[in-house]
Amino acid sequence: MSTLLHVDSSVRAATNPNPDHDSISKNIARRFVDTWKQNRPEDEYIYRDVGVNPPDFITQDWIGAVFTPEENRTPAQEERLALSDTLIAEVSAADVIVISSPMYNYGMPAQLKAWFDQIVRINKTFDFDLARGDFPLQPLLSGKTLIIVTSSGEFGFEKGGIREDSGHLAPHLRTLSKYLGVDTTYEIAAEYQEFGDERHRLSVAKAKARAESLASELSSSASAQSSENEVANV
């Protein structure tokens, strides 16, 4: 059995009275998750909609609690870190992580950044040792697969694209993903939303089809791996 962690970050709902306001990124991610669940209904599923229910921003008191040794923390400090502990536990438990995000002002929503800030935490998801020279930070988690689902109003943010230098969403997610323990990353992107033309329709349709096919591929691989492990343990 695997654990799938699904994190949405659009402030829009997946379904609205006006379909034109439906979140594109959430609906693409839902296509992946629904396919995964159909193929692997026994897997554990954890869902967070940080766009609608955003985590708290970190504060000076939060940082103070993090750098206080656990045995010396006050009840108030433990309470301040409770959400962080919960979010980290969800990431730690996950084998597959799906993060969907719209591009807001060429980067990730503040709500998703707040989620990462609660999780990227010393002695929990990374450690720090100056003996490593110029690269003292080292992730503590590993072995996870990440599916990044993005939607954008413009286009050409990929490597070599006409807006490559303006796209900070996917690169930022890739950079931070190592602190989630991610070893393998897949990306699905829908573009052209602001243009509202045939290119947009085709981009969304292609992204949904890719989400479904990727979920089928990965869930089948996970099932095969689980079967091999069961045979090995007999």
UniProtKB/TrEMBL annotation:
Q: Which InterPro entries match?
A: Flavodoxin_fold, Flavoprotein-like_sf, FMN-dep_NADH:Q_OxRdtase_AzoR1, NADH:quinone_OxRdtase_FMN_depd
Instruction: List the Pfam families hit by this protein, alphabetically.
Output: Flavodoxin_2
Q: Which residues bind FMN?
A: 10, 23-25
Show where the Flavodoxin-like fold domain sits.
17-213
Report keywords, A-Z: Flavoprotein, FMN, NAD, Oxidoreductase
Q: Does the keyword Flavoprotein apply?
A: yes
Give the required cofactors: FMN
The record's region (Disordered) falls at 1-23
Cofactor: how bound:
Binds 1 FMN per subunit.
Give the EC number(s) listed in the UniProt record. 1.6.5.-, 1.7.1.17
Record text on subunit structure and interactions: Homodimer.
Similarity comment: family membership: Belongs to the azoreductase type 1 family.
Role this protein plays: Quinone reductase that provides resistance to thiol-specific stress caused by electrophilic quinones.
Q: What is this protein called?
A: FMN dependent NADH:quinone oxidoreductase
Species of origin reads Marinobacter xestospongiae
The gene behind this protein is azoR
